[in-house]
Amino acid sequence: MKRFHVHLHVDDLQRSIGFYAKLFAAEPTRVEADYAKWMLDDPAVNFAISTRGTQPGIDHLGIQTDDPAELAAMKARAEAADMALQDEGETTCCYARSEKHWVTDPQGIAWEHFHTLADIPVFNEAASAQPSASACCAPTPRGKPIGIPVKASGSSCC
């Protein structure tokens, strides 16, 4: 099974956790000081929020696979389509050890394809070893954040 992934940057983690817990009618499956994640089955989505971005909005989109064969097939499709592919292999990010690669769409939006191998106690092992490192997930630029700003509450716009 594949699961859609969305990572959203927020200004106020606790307020956002409260909002999304009500929206999804579920508490997060993981909460850290700077991060929360819901692994929803209906709809099948890995929805993550963090306070690590420069502005509120969507950082990246992705597809999480349940097994390495699905990830390999996605990588093969990207390579066959001659997509610019950044292969990170086994890496750590978002409190998890994963096998992953990135592709960037024509607008520069980053898409993460990954298979989670294990949970880890830190957001990113490389950043934890080097406190000055602030980039999530990819050691080199992988595309631009989508940067869709979050509308203020009370907005009637959908």
Provide key terms for this protein:
alpha+beta, 2,3-Dihydroxybiphenyl 1,2-Dioxygenase, domain 1, 3 helices, 39% strand, disordered C terminus
Task: State the shape.
Answer: globular
CATH fold description: 2,3-Dihydroxybiphenyl 1,2-Dioxygenase, domain 1
What is the ordering of alpha helices and beta strands?
EHEEEEHEEEH
Structural class: alpha+beta
What is the CATH homologous superfamily assignment?
A: 2,3-Dihydroxybiphenyl 1,2-Dioxygenase, domain 1
Work out the number of β strands. Answer: 8
Q: What is the CATH class designation?
A: Alpha Beta
Helix content: 10-25%
| Unreliable segments of 5+ consecutive residues | 131-158
Report the sheet with the most strands, covering strand number, pairing sense and barrel closure.
Answer: 8 strands, mixed
Distance between the termini: 30 Å
Radius of gyration in whole Å, from Cα? 16 Å
Query: How many structural domains are formed by the residues?
Result: 1
- Strand proportion, as a percent range, falls in 35-45%
CATH architecture: Roll
